[in-house]
Amino acid sequence: MNIKKHLSILYIEDDEIMALKLKSILEKIFYEVIIAKNGQEAYAIFKGTHKIDLIISDINMPKMDGLEFLEKVREIDENIPFIFLTGRNESKKMLRAIELSITNYLLKPIDLDKLLLAINKILEKKIKDQDLLENDLIINKDYSWNKSKNILYKNNIIIKLTKKELQFIGFLLSSPNRIYSESDIIDYIWKDEFSSLNYSSNLKNLIVRLKKKIPDLKIINHYGLGYKIEIN
């Protein structure tokens, strides 16, 4: 999917000629470019029904300048990407903008290549963050499971486990909070092994090891039914 074709940009610029010129360029690349003449108008749009993915704003504008607009935006959304377009003699305002977590800033006059590069960097981060959301299952406040890589994290640090321990956790988390029978788990973990070993005993030993390694990961034994990992 081309994420650019789904991105809505709010562009605030009081110079109408400049605004229309940049809008005509950005509209060829992005899904929607909404123009506002000042911070007051932009804030009304931002609070309205439009879903805004990125804000590009001049810093000096009538009615409500870019810095005041940024402050109001951050009261509602701490994370939305925000690019400032600024002159060379606005260091005090830029220090305040940095405190409010602007994503980037560019000096005027605007270099289109630099602006597109800044937007592309934001998009790359957006894609990575989306991948993390899609691939990471939050187990509890400490633990998460990466489904695509079969990795268990505690406070974002990888926990080293054996292949079969990871298979056990991954199988139980394939349908969170579902109870899996002992026979289903054994069939999954030892499906490629053919011997007369007591796999029921192997499974119990595996669970004992896991509970010693990660005692605060709740592996629940529902007697007579099977096992699950509690998600909360």
Automatic annotation (TrEMBL):
Q: SMART domains attached here?
A: REC, Trans_reg_C
OmpR/PhoB-type domain span: 135-231
User: This protein's superkingdom?
Assistant: Bacteria
UniProt key word Transcription regulation = yes
Q: Where is the Response regulatory domain?
A: 8-123
Q: Name one GO biological process term.
A: regulation of DNA-templated transcription
Record key words, sorted: DNA-binding, Phosphoprotein, Transcription, Transcription regulation, Two-component regulatory system
Q: Please name the CDD domains in this protein's record.
A: REC
State if Phosphoprotein is listed as a keyword.
yes
Tell me a Gene Ontology molecular-function term this record carries.
transcription cis-regulatory region binding
Q: Name one Pfam family in it.
A: Response_reg
A cellular-component GO term for this protein: cytosol
* InterPro entries tied to this protein: CheY-like_superfamily, OmpR/PhoB-type_DNA-bd, Sig_transdc_resp-reg_receiver, WalR-like, WH-like_DNA-bd_sf
Known DNA-binding region: 135-231
- Please report the name of this protein according to its UniProt entry: DNA-binding response regulator
The species this protein was found in: Poseidonibacter parvus
